[in-house]
């Protein structure tokens, strides 16, 4: 085996939010324990590797962003390999394994990885290992962990083959060309989401710490006859099993408290992709009645004094802080309550073993501790297994320690999924459940991801209301549960709702409003333009809009814009417009009753609404959901979309609605064009490709 020692392979990652990078780093780390050397680079660093001459196996970890695009860091690479002048054997010398990351709730699942994989195949490259497609919707680790486990064996075989090829070519010079097309080694790993029970034990491995603990050591097992496992309680067989836990990730951040004072960095310094603006909230309206299941708010921002520009259909981002009480609580648990306002300096630890350790871009080098916990870190993020692994080292109570080990172990994978991931357990929940766990601040900075700005669709037209931007959102609410005794609101929507409460209830005597009008709050925003979800450039083209719930939001902007154009250009020809809207109850959450005005003034040609929870006395029950209503208008939809080459827009909930709508459209195409379902799906794919079937969907 010694001849395999320190064999090199090239490891490329293409990351958008850091997940692909973190997984590549995990591979890099494990490689050492397998006697291999991973030459790791971001795929954008094209001066550091050369696939044209690469002889060693290549491993690629690549995520997906936007509507099925490769991450920004892979753009140049993809452009390069998509050069149509490249010959079909351009990469015939290349052996590679690819791990794609994605989210199956989006239409183009793992498309970033699939695009690169397909193109490498077209250019003659060969898989030495089956492609893995990991789904963030059910848990990336369900595919990632077994994929990495299987990688080592696949790499060994690839090296063996490479060696055989090299020695053959030295013996029989000239025959080597026929050998270069060596049979592809495909490992029969079924890398689907059901893979969680896959067990790949390599006894020789030193990558994981193998733990065997006797039952007597464990405090938390079901000693009281309680046989149900929970976040903190483990039951046999897991509580009695030996555990394979991941290697301890090397620390790489150093935090120094400073005596100095000063100012925190401006929020704009946290955003590299766009210019940020702090704009006043000039209006807040509650669109739903008090008894509606979800509360929807409309906010109006004054952008008149800024360069912020938008088109109807664009979205924009709100930079939001973490909940102030949660930050306080975290400081308290960390034993740093008194130090929240202290300035800290965050640096990369000298001599860290973490490969390619760099200063995290979302953390200012110098700011107060509170600033970092409030604006920079997603403190509610679901802890990854590597984080749990690191937390084990900060936990003193033996039973708690064992349970954390279990939760990050291979054997405890289904407990991790059930009690952490599916239960949306965040760091604070974990620290409450495991009170002897006292992590250091540097560990939190290393493991908590960036607090992401939240996107919202613009619900206004700059033509109709110059200098204003409106948007609509539902306040996200999470009810209390066993791991969290109090209910919570979404980070951004909870913050916004609290911020605009004085505008919504101006008569309530809050300290802000006493004796005068409510103070005007400002929120930080930046643009998130899109290139496709816009009105058709030609106003005579008909279009259909489908937007249940808050999905109606961008279409209000479309209709306002269209109304203004109609007023200003009486000689233009305007195409027919359809709007399908749905909500639960007509009298509780019909967000925009003034849609009727658009209908009356001719801006909207057809308005079709449905109410999913209203009871009906009609003999034939009315349709409940927008997709049901669309089916009732199959002929008209087919005419607009297929005969008149119109546009079809869908906005709103991706989980429950978007797929239902596209299924309805497939059925309509199949029925109206008299083709089978597969053919209809192909036609829909062509419409998507032509950007005439457009979706703007979110969870
Ligand atoms: P978060 O705190 O981020 O929570 C949201 C999600 O986190 C939950 O759905 C759940 O999956 C998970 N989660 C977190 N904690 C828990 C818990 N304790 N229990 C269960 N689950 C939990 N939204 C609108 O309302 N209107 C819009 O116009 C709109 N437009 C959008 C446009 C785009 C392009 C995109 C990408 C998104 C859009 N969204 C819109 C969604 C919006 O960006 C936010 O995701 C949403 O408002 C929730 O943000 P939040 O911070 O309040 O919730």
Automatic annotation (TrEMBL):
EC number: 1.16.1.8
Localisation per UniProt entry: Cytoplasm
Family annotation (Pfam families): FAD_binding_1, Flavodoxin_1, NAD_binding_1
Enzyme class: oxidoreductase
Alphabetized UniProt keyword annotations: Amino-acid biosynthesis, Cytoplasm, FAD, Flavoprotein, FMN, Methionine biosynthesis, NADP, Oxidoreductase, Phosphoprotein, S-adenosyl-L-methionine
Name assigned to this protein: Methionine synthase reductase
PROSITE patterns xref list: FAD_FR (PS51384), FLAVODOXIN_LIKE (PS50902)
SUPFAM superfamilies membership: Ferredoxin reductase-like, C-terminal NADP-linked domain (SSF52343), Flavoproteins (SSF52218), Riboflavin synthase domain-like (SSF63380)
FAD-binding FR-type domain residues: 274-536
Reactions mediated catalytically: 2 cob(II)alamin + A + 2 H2O + 2 H(+) = 2 aquacob(III)alamin + AH2
Cofactor: FAD; FMN
Chain ranges of the Flavodoxin-like domain: 9-152
GO CC terms, sorted: cytosol
GO term, biological process aspect, one: folic acid metabolic process
InterPro entries per record: CysJ-like_FAD-binding, FAD-bd_FR_type, Flavdoxin-like, Flavodoxin/NO_synth, Flavoprot_Pyr_Nucl_cyt_Rdtase, Flavoprotein-like_sf, FNR_nucleotide-bd, NADPH_Cyt_P450_Rdtase_alpha
Subunit structure: Forms a multiprotein complex with MMACHC, MMADHC and MTR.
GO-annotated molecular function: [methionine synthase] reductase (NADPH) activity; flavin adenine dinucleotide binding; FMN binding
């Amino acid at each position: 085996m010694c001849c395999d020692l320190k064999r090199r392979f090239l490891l490329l990652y293409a990351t958008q939010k850091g997940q692909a990078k973190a997984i590549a780093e995990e591979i890099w780390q494990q490689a050492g324990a397998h006697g291999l050397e991973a030459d790791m680079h971001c795929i954008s660093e094209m001066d550091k590797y050369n696939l044209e001459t690469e002889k060693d196996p290549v491993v690629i970890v690549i995520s997906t962003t936007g509507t099925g695009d490769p991450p920004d860091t892979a753009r140049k690479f993809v452009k390069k390999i998509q050069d149509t002048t490249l010959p079909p054997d351009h990469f015939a010398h290349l052996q590679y394994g690819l791990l794609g990351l994605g989210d199956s709730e989006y239409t183009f699942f793992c498309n970033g990885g699939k695009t690169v994989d397909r193109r490498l195949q077209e250019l003659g490259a060969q898989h030495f290992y089956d492609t893995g497609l990991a789904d963030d919707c059910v848990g990336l680790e369900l595919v990632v962990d077994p994929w990495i486990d299987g990688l080592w064996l696949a790499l060994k075989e690839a090296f063996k083959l490479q060696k055989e090829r090299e020695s053959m070519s030295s013996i029989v010079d000239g025959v080597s060309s026929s050998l270069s097309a060596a049979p592809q080694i495909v490992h029969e790993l079924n890398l689907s989401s059901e893979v969680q029970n896959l067990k790949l034990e390599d006894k020789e491995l030193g990558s994981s710490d193998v733990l065997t603990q006797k039952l007597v050591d464990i405090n938390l097992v079901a000693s009281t006859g309680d046989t149900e496992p929970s976040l903190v309680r483990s039951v046999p067989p897991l509580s009695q099993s030996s555990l394979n836990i991941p290697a301890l990730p090397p620390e790489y951040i150093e935090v120094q408290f400073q005596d100095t004072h000063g100012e925190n960095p401006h929020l704009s310094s946290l955003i590299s992709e766009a210019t940020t603006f702090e704009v006043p909230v000039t209006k807040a309206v509650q669109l739903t009645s008090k008894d509606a299941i979800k509360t929807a708010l409309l906010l109006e921002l004054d952008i008149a004094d800024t360069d912020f520009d938008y088109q109807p259909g664009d979205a924009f981002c709100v930079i939001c802080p973490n909940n102030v009480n949660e930050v306080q609580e975290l400081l308290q648990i960390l034993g740093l309550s008194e130090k929240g306002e202290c300035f800290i300096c965050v640096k990369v630890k000298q001599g860290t073993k973490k490969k390619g350790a760099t200063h995290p871009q979302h953390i200012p080098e110098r700011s107060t501790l509170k600033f970092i916990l409030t604006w920079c870190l997603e403190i509610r993020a679901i802890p990854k297994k590597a984080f749990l692994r690191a937390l084990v080292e900060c936990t003193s109570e033996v039973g708690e320690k064992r349970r954390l080990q279990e939760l990050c172990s291979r054997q405890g994978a289904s407990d991790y999924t059930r009690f952490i991931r599916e239960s949306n357990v965040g760091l604070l929940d974990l620290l409450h459940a495991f009170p002897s766990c006292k992590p250091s601040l540097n560990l939190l900075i290393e493991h908590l991801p960036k607090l992401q700005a939240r996107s919202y669709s613009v619900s206004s037209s700059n033509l109709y209301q110059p200098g204003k931007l409106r948007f609509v959102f539902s306040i996200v609410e999470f009810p209390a549960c066993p791991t969290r005794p109090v209910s919570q609101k979404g980070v951004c929507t909870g913050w916004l709702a609290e911020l605009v409460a004085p505008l919504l209830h101006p008569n309530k005597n809050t300290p802000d409003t006493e004796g005068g009008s409510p103070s005007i709050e400002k929120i930080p925003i930046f643009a998130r333009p899109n290139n496709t979800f816009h009105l058709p450039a030609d106003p005579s083209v008909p279009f259909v809009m489908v937007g249940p719930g808050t999905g109606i939001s961008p279409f209000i902007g479309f209709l306002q814009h269209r109304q203004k154009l109609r007023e200003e250009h009486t000689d233009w020809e305007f195409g027919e417009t359809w709007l399908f809207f749905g909500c639960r109850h007509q009298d509780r959450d019909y967000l925009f009753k003034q849609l009727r005005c658009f209908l009356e003034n001719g801006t909207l040609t057809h308005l079709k609404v449905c109410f999913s929870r209203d009871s009906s006395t009609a003999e034939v029950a009315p349709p409940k959901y927008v997709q049901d209503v669309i089916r009732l208008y199959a002929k008209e939809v087919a005419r607009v979309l297929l005969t008149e080459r119109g546009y079809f827009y869908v906005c709103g909930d991706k989980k429950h609605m978007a797929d239902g709508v596209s299924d309805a459209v497939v059925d309509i195409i199949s029925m109206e064009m008299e083709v089978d379902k597969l053919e209809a799906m192909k036609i829909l794919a062509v419409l998507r490709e032509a950007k005439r079937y457009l979706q703007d969907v979110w969870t």
